[in-house]
Design brief:
Chain lengths: 399, 399, 399, 399
């Protein structure tokens, strides 16, 4: 399939579950809609089960398979390693890939601990390959527009941020245990899984960093059914009657200070009945305000405080105009995009950076900085919600 | 004007500014739409300036005037003293009124300090007169419906509350000083003025109390123009060039724990550009969720988690049906009410309680409990946001 | 009760049902919030049942009663006759009042037939008194803002109007007959009762008139229970089993041409399940668009087509700023108004016009023009929806 | 690329503009997310310009090219002809394809005239191949849910439909002429381009057909700039100063009767400033109501009239649950889909039908029925909006 005379970018993906499916669609789709300086070649996907990974490769469009990620990393035809596994394996794979001179795209959170994340940043610094962490929601056009308006000074001095990531998929105590509820595998619960996203979004949109937090964590349902071995992780299957402990947080709430002096409230929960994937960000500034909700992802609400009060109001901008980031490559105005498009945009930005030998954003250092916020949240929550300051962003953070 | 054979309730109101106007409209209007067991008689209004109070009395419908509130309290034709003055005078007036055997309706916050509020509760306990504090937003029909749904178990165990009171009237640093920005007069800033309302609302709707807080306060604009003596408090008049300090908070944010184990986030600010009077309350529980925003005050959003997921969704209930609290006395379905109607409903509930010699709610003890929350917020904010537990509700709290 | 030294305006109201209650509240409230050049005196209310009208007078605040409207019209202490009766009596009362030199405020629709309306306009022309028809929704501040934006040229050439008045109170076939379903009393059904409002609103906001219509009328439920004599008109009481015919339309839909060349669609129905009082008006013009829904009556949505597409969007203007029509007399920003406030505003505008001896709007001629539209709708619907042109507006129309 | 052992379906696509891009993405993506009984093989794409079609083939993923659609139709490796050209060529290509024993997927509107559409239906009847017309919006999950609720009786007897398709891309008179404004190529303007969609949607969701119409058509801007030969069809390029006539309608509005007795209003326009692709459908029935707006395409609003009025309200169903049509193949709840997903769903349904040798829907007969509605609209508009009845649906209509 000769798409274009552009050089080839050999991609090897590790993991093929939810994130692997989304990344595959992005690698396949990006060159169909965007002019890429490198042509992604879906070379190989790795997974431990030979039959399953072969079936996934066929389904998702990967040419070859490996049952050991180390073999994938070692291949000469792989230029970039795309890490779509749970967080406890990110550091090992990324370190090996960078050591092998590969580029790396690593799903968020960067790692399960600050120490791992630091090691990853250290490895990325000076490595031949370029490294990026997958805070995909930055690539939603409405979020890009929010960032643009802040950059243009349309919001002014940021006074308030309220950031929420609300889901409800384990609000029912009958939902059984799974790896996402296991601290060993997942690192943390709602905090790292979804809280990490809104921390990144708040910092990305405002262009500021958090300088400290005061936090609470809670596990509402501390014991859950063990999923029957035959029912898998489906969450609703019949169970054996046995139960096991939930070792991560169900919800995290915290206050924070922004580097520009503003106040922020954060909330990440899997217990907000009726909210399915409500990523909400509201920013109030001296010159205007912004509001976004992923449940209406093609829309940004913007208030311009410079207009006379009698005709001012939050403006519902349908972010589907050709001038909006990424949108010109897709459809006419009013024809909205969906969840997976942000992954395609991530591929576009990553490939552009690689071709220019430019650090893609968010970098591993950006991922580490988010990790430090999560760590500070945990420490504050363990210490009577006491104010817990954050250090300056790591050297090399690209934000 | 013979409205009905019901006994007369002589009302004396102290203060006739914003709150006095709203209360007057309520006293005048309640008997026109509701069957009251006592007929309010707008007997006398008190204010220090003789001409101004006379003009206000004519405008607002009060028969007589006094220039000293003590004279008002002493009058035999006054059965109830309605306190509409700034917070620093609440305690004195209420104590005198209760000592004189009068009923008392006192605007919120109950007082500027916990000590004053405690004295007021002590005075109310065992007094001949009955005492009520004016958390008026409880009387919005949509808020009543929210409470009803919680009482019916339709929300289940409360997991999350997010409560916000967002305004923007001093977001512009050019807005001059006024008594609301003076700690001596106002006690606190956004915290006591509007934060008190959402604390009360959150507790009222959930039927729970806050057991502790972790808080931050902020004054974004610490120096403001002194209003020109000729420009008054209008906020936009020309000023002399002199400035003075803002001695209260511009914004308050805090985390809290509910007595049932849920997590809550609170935010009260006068710096949320574009939000005019956005009192927002969202409650997520194991059986359902609620969402309210005063900017659309005739509507309550309700999610019923017992419905099959494929047909479940937040239901936009237009709270204008005859079965809804208070609504049957007004207009047909779909003909919404406005801000001041809640004050009329407050009169209705108060008069009903007085006629039955029943403690009206919210009581002074309820007001004291809110005051204690505000106090804990200030102490936490002054102590590195450290977790600050709250004592049990005072004896006699009617909640 | 000495409100002010302004001259007295003696008001006599005929009818005291739904509209009478709303008008009474307006007469009582207007001088409390607005500076009126004349002081309304709620002199007398007329109704056929002596006991009932006396009770209503006490409840609603009228000093005296009459059991014959002719006696009311004849009184020297009555300067203005306020007609709140069903449409079949409007003409008689208005003609008598004008003949007696009184001012007249007449509820809409002006009359049940064009002939009656023409007689009323003729009587108003040259009469001593001034006459106004009560298209109250014009006085909602958001509607006034819509009109202002059109007048300022912010909408440009009007291309489209879509106007709907949606209710659902007789969607259930078990709802019994009442006078509103009887052509003799009501003149027409949804068409005259609520369709008249959106015809007036569309013309008022655009500043244009309809030049022709193509229409359909429908009676979905042609036979309904006769209300039991003991169950009254409540609509849900037990019934005798007898049924009777519905002689008016349940719904009206029509196309229209605006005088400026735009296209309009109109819909009035009592069968829109879930829509309680949804008065919706959307106007699309060459320079911008407007959208209003009475179910969120304090809000106007405005699209400014002159903004760059990437930052353009419908702006949700909360119409509660002091600069908005009428609003400055009420509450601070964000404290919304309700249904009945529009009646208070109607009193304000009427009294201002009377004091200045200026024709109030909408005039009887405006009411006649709406009546002619309704008549054209009926004629088109009876003639295969054929295009039915409208004559020019009557002489003297104040629009 | 061996996806699976399923038989191959050779696809030949004619045209590769907007619709060709959307169809290509669908053919590529469907087998990645859905289990298809046949494996689509993107065999060949046809276009008149050899270089351009080759570039398009590479970009869109088609193996081979033809510069004459007749050659494409003649190929043995093509099982299905996918027609993505303007309406004036649909009939010729479809007739040839069916004659050659191919399956056909034809973009809407089926043809530019009723006569052509009738010929296409005749050809499809008894042909070896199966034929489908592309009313893609049916495949939006929220639209499917709307249909399901109607089928389950949750809406009851349909009383009202209001259907609108609102765009604004030629509201500016400076937008130059293009083939879509040329009656020869496009057949009609807004009526056939977008009005056809809402006619199909209204009939699909209600399960009823239109029995007659009363209509108006309008061309607001009758003369437009001729696009400079170098500026192409971009719509904003510099122009030579020459102008030419617009020969199609800018907007269409019409009333209709549904076969079940309900009333409908329709509106299709390219002049609704601020509305980008607002496909709105509201259905009011005796048992409930539905409302959909494509600008929020993952949501359906549903009112259940069987609930007690005090807790009833329009329910905002986020249509992203695994039980919703097509959704289970994509992402977790709350992760919305975009415009192009409906094309993927169209491929899924078509391939399923082909494998089962079952008539896919909507059939050519369904397309003809819509064409007859459009024709009746034009005849009514040309005859004083007179009521124009429609014949019964053609034999063989699959709806």
């Amino acid at each position: 399939m000769t798409l274009a005379p552009q050089p080839r970018l050999g991609v090897g993906m590790v993991g093929y579950a939810f994130m692997g499916v989304a990344h595959s669609q992005a690698w396949r789709t990006a060159p169909r809609f965007f002019d890429l300086p490198l042509t992604p070649d879906l070379t190989v996907v790795a997974g431990r089960n030979a039959d399953a990974v072969r079936a996934a490769a066929d389904r998702l469009g990967w040419r070859d398979v490996e049952t050991d990620w180390k073999a994938l990393v070692a291949r000469d035809d792989v230029d970039l390693v795309d890490i779509c596994t749970p967080g406890d394996t990110h550091a090992d794979i990324a370190l090996a890939a960078l050591a092998a001179g590969k580029h790396v795209l690593c799903e968020k959170p960067l790692a399960n601990t600050v120490a791992e994340a630091e090691a990853m940043v250290a490895a990325a610094t000076g490595a031949t390959g370029l490294a990026m962490v997958g805070f995909t929601y930055r690539r939603v056009p409405a979020v890009q527009l929010a960032r643009t308006l802040v950059e243009q000074g349309r919001i002014g001095t940021v006074r308030h941020v309220r950031a929420q990531y609300l889901q409800d998929w384990i609000a029912d105590p009958a939902v059984p245990l799974s790896w996402r509820l296991d601290k060993q595998k997942a690192g943390s619960g709602a905090l790292g899984d979804i809280g990490a996203h809104v921390v990144d979004l708040a910092q990305f949109v405002t262009g500021e960093t958090l300088t400290g937090v005061s936090a609470m964590l809670e596990t509402f349902v501390r014991e859950r059914p063990v999923a029957d071995q035959f029912s898998g992780l489906s969450g609703t299957g019949s169970t054996s009657g046995a139960t096991g402990p939930v070792t991560v947080d169900d919800a995290a709430v915290f206050l924070a200070r922004l580097s520009g002096g503003g106040l922020a409230t954060f909330e990440a929960t899997r217990f907000a009945s009726g909210r399915k994937n409500a990523i909400r960000l509201e920013v109030n500034g001296s010159a205007g305000s912004l509001a976004f909700d992923f449940e209406d992802m093609n829309v940004l609400h913007y208030f311009d405080a410079s207009q006379p009060a009698w005709e001012a109001g939050f403006r519902r901008i349908v972010v589907t105009e050709p001038e909006h980031a990424y949108v010109g490559a897709w459809w006419p105005p009013g024809h909205g995009l969906g969840y997976e498009h942000a992954f395609t945009h991530q591929v576009v930005d990553l490939v552009d950076a690689l071709a220019a030998n430019r650090q893609p954003t968010p970098s591993f250092a950006d991922g580490l900085q988010v990790q430090r916020v999560l760590d500070a949240v945990e420490r504050s929550a363990a210490d009577e919600s006491r104010w817990t300051p954050l250090n300056e962003p790591a050297e090399g953070a690209a934000r």
